[in-house]
Every structure is written in C-alpha cells, then in structure tokens.
Specification:
By secondary structure, the protein is α/β, with parallel strands linked by helices. The protein has a single domain, classed as Zn peptidases (Aminopeptidase, 3-Layer(aba) Sandwich). The protein is built from seven helices and eight strands. Helix 1 packs across helix 7 and helix 5 crosses helix 7. The termini are close together. The N terminus is likely disordered.
Length: about 290
C-alpha cells in the first residue's frame, strides 16, 4: 500500500477566487447563454493548463447548439481511472454559487493538489467539468456527464469509481437548519446543517461507506453516508447517475441541496452565503479518499 506523506491542504482563498470568477460571469451560465458557458469553460481550461496534466475539450451538440465538457487527466501507475466531476452550468438566471460553482471550485482544487503528488498516484485520475447538468436536459442522454460516461464505455476505458461534486459550499450551525425528505431520516442525521453527505443508490452501501470512511479522518466537517433506492428521486440528482448505467461505483458529495440551502435555484445563491473553510475541509476529505481508493 502506498503511504502518502506531507500535509497537502485545500486553500479556502483559492476556492473563493474560483467561485468568485464563475459567479461573476454575466448573464448567468445557463444552457441558453452560450457565451457565458464558454467563458466558464475557458476559465476552467486555463486553470487546468497551469498544471502538469492532459487537458482536453469534449465537444457535443444538443438541439443544434455547441456545448463541451472539459477534462484533465493525471496519469497514475494504473490505466484504470477514477473519475471526479462537477457541472459548471446553472439553472435559470442565478449566479449558482453553491449550485455548482462550489463543486467546480472543489474540482479545480483537487487538480492543484493532485499536481503535487501525481508521481505517486496509483490510479489514473480524470477530472471532468460537465455542461448541461441542469434542466431542461437533466435526466436525459444530453447531459454532459451522460456524453462523457458513454464515451468511456465506447472507448473501453476501465473505470474503478466516480465521485461527483454537487453543492459543497452551504452550511449552517443553527439547530433546525437541516430538513429531511421524511421524518424517519431525523433518527440517523443531525438537524443542524453543518455536515456533508456521500450519496448513492441502494446496493452500493459498501462503496459509499468506504468513501465516507476515507474522507472523515482528513475532514473536520462531519461526513455521513446515505444509500436510497434508485427510484427515490433525491439519490440521483446529479451527474453520478449516468455512470450507474455502466455498473460503475458512483457517489455524489453533497450538502443536501434544497433540504438545507434556502437559495437553491434562486438569485440569492451568491458567494457571500458560502463557508469556504468548511468547503476546504470537504475537499481535503475527498482528495484523501481519491488517492486511497
């Protein structure tokens, strides 16, 4: 087993700068605003290209319009890949600080941390910034993550696991700030929204718990695992869903979205509502899970 030494830590300041750049793009980066989406993609590409990795664009067309995913590959000792992804588009006319500039910032910070350790990587790590996660294409084969997952299958790429960042920036220390889809959940999870969740479908409990257990020793934010039936809508509310189709272990790292964040899909989803110290802790946890999977 590889022993990873040193004290690599995510930077709250870098996370803030990434979120600030993405949320400052106007008009908001939704599916209708191609120029804004391209500005976001250009920023992501420029940050990846500062690092020693293979950066590629994955163009695709939907309803006659051009979109693209951005990938960065850090070669490991094995060609088998771990995919880490986050979507950079927003839903409607809102800045999307938590949903999902926070996830993209986490993805970029993972890239910076991997850049310092890539000679030690066991698996090849592919980071992907997706377009078209949000409505009207959510749940369809036009999602950027569906395009990416399908391309890996068609190319015969062996994928060990997939981890999705979606909404990792909003926290509250106020009792009662965490809501649940049913009262039953309150038996297992706190009602104060200051934790992060590793989410996957029923049947994937072992992998979900493994990611949680690898994260927690390196994350000062409490980490919980949850597995629900795939038919239970909340469990598949992001890009990880498109990797299940190919029998890939895939989880979402999430702060429970609208069950906690009152700004979900609203113009009030702004940078000043996020906690960048807690975000950095979550990135630390995910990074340490990735390199130990």
């Amino acid at each position: 087993m590889l022993i990873y030494k040193g004290n690599m830590k995510a930077s709250p300041d870098r996370l803030y700068n990434d979120v600030e750049t993405l949320t400052s793009i106007s008009p908001p980066r939704n599916y209708l605003q191609l120029e804004s989406l391209n500005k976001a993609a250009t920023y992501i590409i420029s940050e990846f290209r500062k690092l020693n990795c293979q950066v590629k664009e994955q163009p695709f067309q939907v309803d006659g319009n051009p979109y693209k995913n951005i990938t960065a590959i850090f070669e490991g000792r094995s060609a088998e890949r771990i995919v880490v992804g986050a979507h950079y588009d927003v839903c409607g006319d809102q800045p999307g600080a938590d949903d999902n500039a926070s996830g993209v910032a986490g993805l970029l910070e993972i890239a910076r941390l991997l850049n310092e350790r890539q000679n030690e990587l066991t698996h090849t790590i592919e980071l992907v910034a997706y377009c078209l996660e949000e409505p009207p294409y959510f749940g369809s084969s036009n999602m950027g993550s569906a395009v990416h997952a399908r391309s890996l299958k068609e190319a015969g790429v062996q994928v060990k696991a997939m981890i999705c960042y979606d909404m990792i920036g909003y926290y509250s220390d106020t009792p009662g700030s965490q809501r649940f889809p049913s009262p039953e959940f309150s038996k297992y999870y706190p009602d104060t929204g200051n934790f992060i969740v590793v989410v996957s479908r029923q049947g994937d409990e072992a992998f979900t718990q493994k990611v949680r257990d690898l994260m927690q020793p390196h994350c000062q934010v409490p980490v919980y695992a949850v597995n629900l039936p795939e038919a239970f809508g909340l469990v598949g509310l992001s890009d990880h869903r498109n990797y299940w189709k190919y029998n890939i272990d895939a989880v979402m790292i999430n702060n429970s979205a609208f069950l906690r964040n009152p700004n979900y899909h609203l113009p009030t989803d702004t940078i000043d509502t996020l906690d960048f110290d807690k975000m950095a802790e979550v990135v630390n946890g995910v990074y340490n899970a990735i390199i130990r999977l």
